[in-house]
Amino acid sequence: MASTACFVIVSKNDIPIYEAEVGSAPKKEDLAYHHQFILHAALDVVQDLAWTTNAMFLRSVDRFNDLVVSVYVTAGHTRFMLLHDSRSEDGIKSFFQEVHELYIKIFLNPLYLPGSRIASSHFDTKVRALARKYLYIRGIY
Amino acid sequence: MLSWPKPATWPSIPPDSSAEVMAKEKTILQAKAREKLFDIQRKPLPLEPSSLLREANRRRAFLSVGNLSELYDSVDGSGLGAHSKLSPNKSSSNLMTRTMSGPATSETSLPVDRPMRLSEIHVAAEHALKQTISDPDFMTSLSSPEEFESRYMELTKGAADNYHRSWWKRHGVVLDGEIAAIFFKHGNYDLAAKSYEKVCALYSAEGWEELLADVLPDLAECQKILKDEAGYLASCVKLLSLESSLFSSKERQAFQSEVVRLAHSEMRHPVPLDVSSLITFAGNPAPPLELCDGDPGTLSVAVWSGFPDDITLESLSLRLSAFSSADEGLKAIRSTDARVLVPGRNIITFDIPPQKPGSYVLGALTGQIGKLSFRSHGFSQDGPVDTDEFMSFEKPTRPVLKVRKPRALVDITPAVSSALLMNELQWIGLIVKPIDYSLKGGILHIDAGAELKIEESQMIEIESYRSDGEHSSPIDASKVLSRPTDTGRVEKVPIENGKIKLPDWASDVTTLVWFPVRAINDTVPKGTSPASPQKHSIVDGMRMIALKLEFGAFHNQIFERTIAVHFTNPFHVSTRVVDKCNDGTLLLQVILHSEVKATLHVKDVSLDLQAGFEHLGKGDGRPTSSLFPLVIAPSSKAGILFVIRLSGTKDLDELEQADSMLHIKYGISGDRATGAHSPVPVKPDDSEELLFKISLKLKRPVLDPCLAVGFLPFSTDCLRVGQLVNMKWRVERLKDLEEASLSDDEILYQVDANPQNWMVAGRKSGHISFSEAQGSRI
């Protein structure tokens, strides 16, 4: 069954360094813009909410119609944002944690300039695989 | 984003509202989406009408996908609000089927088998609102679209301000976009532009390019209407520099054509355009171009163009900034003429005029499109700049041009250090050695000094020079075989006014230049004898040649050198009387010292004796034995014996002043590369014979000493400065005076002492009588 999900990693400078549509619905251009719009506006909410708790996983911080924005903030204030329709939170938390590990591996690469786009196709494949694993099978659907 | 409050169930349409419904439908159908600049086709965000439909019909039963799609097809636009982006939201139709499982409402008065159309939804909502609202201001706001808009603007502005103040900038910016759209609709283009600028600034600062791609055309449109050329150009350039997948190629071409059109038109206030993200450049990956001081060169630079089409540039110039600490900030500018940049990589060569020494890195690229000047500071490492990168690249520290400090580029040394023959036409060799530099087009000026004449009727020989070991021994089969291409090329070049043009093949190899000169020395050389010891002066034989080589790619390199060449007579002659025979003849040995490093063949020698002497024997002035041809090895000596006799001249004065002349006919076989050699034949019938004349002074030898002089030892052993010392000597007559002519028996004595060391107190000269008898002493 189709679901929408858009995953964005935003660096601490508020610049998106990675974007992926990880939903199982077919990708559309207008929807991509739509998702960007919602995620960008949600950054405002995150910037307030991130300092209220010392947890990394902030759960859902914003809603738009029936789309929900869940955010995971790393120690370096890099935000992993997932725009999705309602689904189970456990899956999302595990997804974020796994992606965090992948992200750390990217940072360990000495040739990677922090704050620049993540262009690794390996990373991309892995993230999509993780999305398939955590966001759809275990979700209540 | 907060969702708008929705009623649990949508109010139903009042019974007799079909006319209103029709009117509403008409307005909906007539309203159309705002056309975007550049014909950008973009599907609007599904924010309003479709969700409105969905929301209103949420709890209604009998909805199927087919019905809904019909409804969606009739959706055209909305009379409300400004951000009118429409799209039949196909995906939400799928969602629709999910939500249809809810119970059907029973409050509707419509037949339950038909969903509400958009117009019906509008009418129903209006009626419900009118019934519930009591505030008169609010009622006026809802009475007409203009009122509603003004109220909407008021609320939105307030909300945007509050969002900004509470640092929820992104929410604030979204509302700013709404406000800008309304301003635009009303024709307040400057206010609209201001608001759009805020939106664009935030989106570009944070790098959300899809959002920027959506709003920037609106800003561009405002700027175009306001005739803000600089802003419009900047927006177009920014649009072009966004990721290319965000726009179709037609749209990108439209951006470019706008830029070009403006560039070629008259602009009121032309401002240089910054295209750092569109046109980037990088130097060659190769090592930096190395030039010598004062040389021009060409530098090739890779320039990447991000324009979708070819773009014609009227001019392009590149600034290099000097990297050395002394010249920080000094910029050197090159330019090239009109060219077309194709999208992607272009290689452009720049001609560089002579520069000061130092190393240079790439600075900024500037140029002109039409009448518009642009500049680019965008460096790229390898490929085009990734526009998503907001970490700007560090200025490249890799130098791209190195101009060397002035250094020796060429060396000219004389080929031969040993002496050449004086007064004969000799070859002088110069080794012209380029040091890592091409001497192409070089002209060698030779200026001979005094007493040296360059024979200009002869051709100059230029040959390639192999270093010492191989040159002197030409027959070395193994070496010749190993270098079959090195054939010792010789070329003859004419000399004009002391100028030689170096041939092209000689520009990179060490060459030997041979040119014929004649050193002139008009004085007759003098030989040495016991009577006239002579100091050899090397200076007499030196001649100076001033050389000047003009070369260089810019013909501005000059090399000057003055070389000294030694010339010498072939022989140095010394004489001595070997023996006296019993009959009074004297054996005169004439010693020929070879002064040259070549083999001399003496063919004939004749001696013209001075007065007071005469030859014995044949009387033709030749030596006693015929040893000719006499071969004298380099720098060695040979002796020739003459038999002479004193002749009876009594004229003492004549005796003192006369000189004998020795004529030597000789030949020389030498290599011009080692030293003196046989002269260059000027005329074809010049003989190989050379004539050398040298004057000798012969003095009558004292073979029969008449007097003996002896010093007596000093009285004291050690002498002190200032001490008065008596010097005594004794003169003894050894034999009787034979000639009666000398009747006076007085002896003239003269004391000569080195005035630096001795002071003579007393008479230095005087006459003393001396008896004539043998054995008498004084």
TrEMBL record, chain A:
One of its GO terms (biological process) is endoplasmic reticulum to Golgi vesicle-mediated transport. SUPFAM superfamilies: SNARE-like. One of its GO terms (cellular component) is cytoplasm. CDD domains: TRAPPC2_sedlin. This is Trafficking protein particle complex subunit 2. It comes from Aegilops tauschii subsp. strangulata.
UniProtKB/TrEMBL annotation, chain B:
InterPro entries: TRAPPC10/Trs130, TRAPPC10/Trs130_C. Residues 717-773 form the TRAPPC10/Trs130 C-terminal domain. Residues 84-95 have a biased composition (Low complexity). Residues 96-109 have a biased composition (Polar residues). GO terms for cellular component: cytosol; TRAPPII protein complex. Residues 82-111 are annotated as: Disordered. It comes from the Eukaryota. GO terms for biological process: early endosome to Golgi transport; intra-Golgi vesicle-mediated transport. This is TRAPPC10/Trs130 C-terminal domain-containing protein.
